[in-house]
Specification:
Mean pLDDT is about 85; it is low at about 1-35. Strand 2 (about 135-140) and strand 3 form a beta hairpin. This protein is mainly alpha-helical. It has helices at about 5-30, 40-50, 60-85, 90-100, 110-115, 120-130, 155-175, 180-200, and strands spanning about 105, 135-140, 145-150. It has a domain at about 85-165: Orthogonal Bundle (Arc Repressor Mutant, subunit A), CATH 1.10.10.10. The protein has a three-stranded antiparallel β-sheet with strand order 1-3-2. The protein is elongated.
Length: about 200
């Protein structure tokens, strides 16, 4: 067999793919508790509590702790993508909420702060900032002359179109170590839990 440049390039590609697969398998083993790994960062906390308070059932502490740690780590990996487009996480959320509402990409401020779970005072400050950046504008409410609606500008629309594409690609990358079956299980479980928590708000 002749080992020309093409063959060597294919070999390097196969080796890189094998390394990526192995890395994904190792990450999956850590997340599912399989394999001979040392566990995750929460395991040490749980071990200390089991030693100090063996009378407590600390299973919920492990679940909630892992969820909160995952949320923090996920946010750390989301922020650089937002920064590439000159925005923060909350700015992305605001523009994305308007974008997914459909044409004319216009919502009442009350709808926005309810969807984003922030106070009206926080929403007012954020709207002022986005308006100053030229990404949104406020227009009269045709159904109530005393109020205004928040609308994406052409610049804001173009920005969120690019940013959301990069954001989704980034999320796919973060979830890549997990199998489709495991992702379905996690998604179903989180949905059930979220509905229960929201029902108690």
């Amino acid at each position: 067999m002749v080992n020309g440049p093409a063959s060597r390039a294919q070999a390097r590609t196969r080796e890189a793919g094998a390394r990526q697969t192995a890395a994904g398998d190792n990450a999956l083993a850590d997340m599912t508790g399989d394999g001979a790994g040392d566990g995750d960062a929460v395991d040490e906390i749980l071990a200390q509590w089991r030693r100090e308070r063996p009378d407590l059932d600390i299973f919920p502490m492990g679940m909630v702790g892992r969820l909160m740690r995952c949320a923090a780590l996920v946010q750390q990996q989301l922020d650089p993508t937002f920064a590439e487009f000159g925005m923060s996480g909350w700015e992305f959320d605001m523009l994305a909420t308007l974008r997914r509402s459909g044409a004319p990409y216009r919502l009442a401020p009350t709808t926005l702060f309810s969807a984003l779970m922030v106070t009206s005072g926080t929403m007012t400050h954020r709207l002022q900032r986005l308006e100053a950046r030229g990404w949104i504008t406020r227009v009269p409410n045709p159904e109530d002359a005393r109020s205004t609606l928040v609308e994406l500008t052409a610049e804001g629309f173009a920005l969120i179109e690019r940013a959301v594409q990069a954001h989704v690609a980034n999320e796919h990358r973060m979830l890549a170590p997990l199998s489709p079956a495991l992702l379905q299980q996690i998604d179903a479980g989180l949905s059930t839990w979220l509905q229960a928590l929201e029902a108690r708000r």
